[in-house]
């Protein structure tokens, strides 16, 4: 443990010594292209037909399941709102004549950075998402060249160079690994995961992408799903009731991801690479939940089993199943604004709103962007 702590300190020191003179990001983007997992999936996995969502998912904002694993809006929805851009439609969502003029969302729940395997929740790993983008871009350029009637629904060709490219992925690579690997094995795999991520960024850069917004991974050791599975031994929990090993893995991943962002900024001098520290925002929320108006930092709002976690892996939010010979339903709580966690894995709209507000202060980003925030007065939450 002492050796691992030493490694963390050394990596942190290296990063601060090597910080380049980075450009501050602006927020006047014509479009956004997003890549990630369920933290920013606005309907991709549901549109693929792999899974389905039932009420009370979506009840807070959309009044119906919206393809989001949440009672309402996600962080990306609040960020799009802040930039005065419409919510992103999922790449695979072909029903209802979706408009992609202001961007497209390739994020898919369950996705990993590393290539998917036969047992993966989602086949749409980061490399596949990047490939989908390449197909999307090529098809857009082809269609616009054929007819102007598509311009209402598709981004202009120049948008691909001017757009913001957002990323929130990596949590599933780490969290999923705990089911079959030791902590040491997981920590040793992080460089390989980040090489795969770097390769995807390079492909996008080669296609003209210049504005990169990269979220680090959150404290998944505080999710009810993980606490229920790995926290039966109290010695594995910290003072907040979170899994120490899982959060340690998240921290080391984030340190190395931050170092990669600094490397990319130095390598691609004509690009803007912004690293966003989601971990500390979310951890601070869980540690000081009552200060921000919440009553339950870890227990799921929509679940089954009651306190302390209200989570049962056998039954998802909104579902009814026979458990031990008795009908059981994972019901939603009476007031989701009191809860940080929605369904044992994902955050509530109220928590996502808080996280978004902290992101928009600019102080959790490297480089910070507080002085370049033309949208502050336009916030709708």
Automatic annotation (TrEMBL):
Residues 1-24 form the signal peptide. Keywords: Glycoprotein, Hydrolase, Signal. The keyword Protein transport does not apply. One of its GO terms (molecular function) is hydrolase activity, acting on ester bonds. It comes from the Eukaryota. PANTHER family: OS05G0401000 PROTEIN, ZINC FINGER FYVE DOMAIN CONTAINING PROTEIN. Belongs to the 'GDSL' lipolytic enzyme family. This is GDSL esterase/lipase At1g54790-like.
């Amino acid at each position: 443990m002492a050796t691992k702590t030493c490694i963390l300190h050394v990596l942190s020191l290296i990063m601060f010594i090597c910080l380049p003179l980075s450009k501050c990001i602006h927020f006047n983007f014509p479009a956004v292209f997003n890549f990630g997992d369920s933290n920013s999936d606005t309907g991709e996995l549901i549109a693929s037909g792999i899974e389905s969502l039932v009420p009370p998912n979506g009840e807070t904002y959309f009044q119906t399941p919206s393809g989001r694993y949440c009672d309402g809006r996600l962080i990306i929805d609040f960020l799009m709102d802040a930039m005065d851009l419409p919510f992103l439609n999922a790449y695979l969502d072909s029903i209802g004549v979706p408009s992609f003029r202001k961007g497209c969302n390739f994020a898919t729940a369950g996705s990993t950075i590393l290539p998917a395997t036969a047992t993966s929740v989602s086949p749409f790993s980061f490399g596949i998402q990047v490939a989908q983008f390449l197909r999307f871009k090529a098809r857009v350029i082809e269609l616009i060249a054929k007819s102007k009637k598509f311009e209402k629904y598709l981004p202009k060709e120049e948008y691909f160079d001017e757009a913001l490219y957002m990323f929130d992925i990596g949590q599933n690579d780490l969290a999923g690994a705990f089911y079959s690997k030791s902590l040491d094995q997981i920590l040793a795999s992080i460089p390989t995961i980040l090489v795969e991520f770097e390769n995807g960024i390079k492909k996008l850069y080669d296609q003209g992408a210049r504005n990169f917004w990269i979220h680090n991974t959150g404290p998944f050791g505080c999710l009810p799903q993980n606490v229920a599975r790995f926290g039966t031994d109290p010695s594995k929990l910290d003072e907040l009731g979170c899994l120490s090993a899982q959060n340690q893995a998240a921290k080391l991943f984030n340190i190395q991801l931050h170092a990669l962002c600094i490397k990319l900024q130095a390598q691609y001098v004509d690009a803007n690479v912004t690293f966003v520290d989601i971990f500390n925002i979310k951890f601070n929320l869980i540690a000081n939940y009552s200060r921000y108006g919440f009553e339950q930092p870890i227990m799921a709002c929509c679940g089954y089993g009651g306190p302390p976690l209200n989570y049962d892996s056998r039954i998802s939010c909104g579902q009814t199943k026979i458990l031990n010979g008795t009908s059981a339903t994972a019901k939603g709580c009476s007031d989701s604004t009191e809860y940080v966690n929605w369904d044992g894995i994902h955050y509530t709209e109220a928590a996502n709103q808080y996280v978004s507000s902290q992101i928009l202060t600019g102080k959790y980003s490297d480089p910070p962007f507080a002085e370049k925030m033309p949208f502050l007065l336009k916030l709708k939450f």
